[in-house]
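Section 3.1: Structural characterization of target chains.
Under the original work plan, the team committed to producing a structural model for every single-chain target entering the pipeline before any wet-lab resources were allocated. The record below documents one such target. The sequence was received from the expression subgroup and is listed exactly as submitted; it comprises 128 residues.
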Amino acid sequence: QVQLEESGGGLVQAGGSLRLSCAASGRTYSYNIYPMGWFRQAPGKEREFVASIAWDGSTTDYSDSVKGRFTISRDNPNHILYLRMNNLKVEDTAVYLCAQHRQMYGLGSSPLYEYEYWGQGTQVTVSS
């Protein structure tokens, strides 16, 4: 089993930037062969897809709400997943979670049920 731990969240003004990290531990060899994703959950709302990346980083996908502002990337040798967030908006405020996909050597996807392992999340708060 792989353990995932997010970091990098915090309080930022609208228009600002943050970079989130997700470090894998445990079965880190599996991290390198599975797609990864970022999700977020705001208070009182359902968890939603933010971005995904293929096992080898060759393909990425984003929700419409973050496309053009967020960038997902991965460092497989060091087992770290990143989410660079630029031009943050108040509506980006949420707990951000990383997750490992179920499909080995896959491209990634948006449905939550297709992800098996989850981190605990890191809080991102954007003030106006």
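The longest strand covers residues 18-26.
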